[in-house]
């Protein structure tokens, strides 16, 4: 399977490529970046170690490679500035992202490709991709809270002095400040986390806080996330290409699960051949359920603002004409004038 990474010259994209190289399951890793030298440099660097890792084709490409790609990962984006919230990035990144989507469609994006959105604000961009890529929404997913969940598990493990792979703890909802810790199902080696020796409310609060601020901490310390986000992306991509059917908190278009409608956010999702194979709703505590709904409301508000600026777009299937026409925007119209009200 060919995996192309648009933005692959950057920190996140290059780390994803490195993780995919060690994953050894993609047959071809293609690095695409607006900065062509950077794309070539990353591809060459990976290629030079390939004889010690795996027999994969590793190339620097252009948008033309989209037509022959099975999985397209989008990491192209503008980085969050220190103390800037992910959602504040929206206007700067939406236009860049929509432009990339149009380029991918013009380059011949295939109906049976998968799109994995990583650029921030990831839930908003994932929603726009489901509406505007022309792909079946099941084949479009965002990294969502996969990275946050990995950080959460690792931070909890460190504080409890247990092996990180034995901690299971989920974060759902928005990849952002409203993410929701699912304490009700958290375990260490299959045993309830809250009963683990040494565990106490302050430790849990601190581990969650450390997770929530991890993105900003990474930006301050080293310019941004790299290794952890790279392995998180590889986890999602490999679950698709190997049809592993892992249950991962990827972001996808929601139609009623946990009472959330018409936004993309993270819920437990079976990821495999076909993309989003199943989304899973289990009984959560009322606080957890309300937290996910609040993430949904927050994201819906942002999407409303975005769509008021750029227009509703359309969801024509691939190969149909689907250009974004700024003159057809719903600018200045109240939402109620063009969209039925939604319940959360
Ligand atoms: N979803 C998550 O969990 C998560 C985690 C970390 C970072 N991110 C996001 O990932 C994105 C990338 O972060 P980064 O640290 O790698 O930034 P970066 O600046 O290192 O890399 C971005 C790359 O995108 C390229 N690019 C820009 N416009 C392009 C275009 N039109 N076509 C092709 N390439 C283009 C740039 O040349 C650059 O190499 C950001 O939006 C960041 O917020 C998401």
Q: Give the end-to-end Cα distance, rounded to a whole number of Å.
A: 38 Å
Report the bound ligands by name, code or SMILES. Answer: nicotinamide-adenine-dinucleotide
Per DSSP E runs of 2 or more residues, the count of β-strands stands at 14
Helix content: 25-40%
- Write down the Rg: 20 Å
The top level CATH class name of the domain at 2-144: Alpha Beta
**Multimeric organization:** single chain
Structural class: alpha/beta
Q: Your description of this structure?
A:
The chain is an alpha/beta fold and 344 residues long. It is 38% helix and 19% strand. The protein has a domain at 2-144: NAD(P)-binding Rossmann-like Domain (Rossmann fold). It contains nine helices and 14 strands. The strands form four sheets. It has a six-stranded parallel sheet, sandwiched between helices. Helix 1 (11-23) crosses helix 8 (227-241) and helix 5 packs across helix 8 (227-241). The protein is globular, with a radius of gyration of 20 Å. The two termini are 38 Å apart. The structure holds nicotinamide-adenine-dinucleotide. Nicotinamide-adenine-dinucleotide binds next to helix 1 and helix 3.
């Amino acid at each position: 399977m060919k995996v192309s990474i648009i933005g692959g010259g950057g920190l996140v994209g290059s780390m994803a490529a490195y993780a995919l190289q060690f994953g050894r399951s993609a047959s071809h890793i293609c690095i695409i970046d607006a900065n062509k030298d950077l794309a070539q440099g990353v591809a060459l660097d990976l290629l030079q170690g390939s004889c010690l890792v795996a027999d994969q084709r590793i190339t620097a490409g252009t948008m033309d490679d989209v037509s022959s790609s099975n999985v397209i990962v989008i990491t192209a984006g503008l980085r969050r500035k220190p103390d800037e919230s992910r959602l504040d990035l929206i206007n700067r990144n939406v236009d860049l992202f929509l432009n990339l989507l149009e380029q991918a469609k013009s380059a011949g994006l295939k109906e049976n490709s998968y799109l994995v959105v990583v650029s921030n604000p990831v839930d908003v961009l994932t929603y726009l991709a489901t509406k505007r890529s022309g792909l079946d929404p099941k084949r479009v997913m965002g990294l969502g809270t996969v990275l946050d969940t990995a950080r959460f598990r690792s931070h909890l493990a460190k504080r409890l002095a247990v092996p990180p792979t034995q901690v299971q703890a989920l974060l759902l909802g928005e990849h952002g400040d409203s993410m929701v810790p699912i304490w009700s199902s958290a375990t260490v080696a299959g045993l309830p986390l809250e009963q683990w020796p040494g565990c106490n409310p302050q430790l849990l609060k601190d581990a969650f806080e450390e997770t929530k601020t991890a993105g900003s901490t990474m930006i301050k310390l080293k310019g941004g996330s790299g290794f952890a986000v790279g392995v998180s992306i590889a986890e999602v991509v490999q679950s698709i290409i190997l049809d592993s059917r892992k249950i991962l908190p990827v972001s996808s278009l929601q139609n009623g699960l946990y009472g959330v409608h018409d936004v993309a956010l993270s819920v437990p999702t079976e990821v495999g051949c076909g993309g989003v194979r199943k989304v899973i709703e289990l009984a959560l505590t009322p606080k957890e359920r309300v937290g996910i709904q609040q993430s949904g409301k927050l994201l819906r508000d942002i999407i409303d603002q975005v769509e008021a600026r750029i227009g509703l777009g359309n969801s024509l299937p691939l190969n149909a004409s689907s250009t974004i026409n700024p003159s057809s925007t719903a600018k200045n119209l109240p939402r109620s004038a063009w969209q039925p009200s939604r319940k959360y």
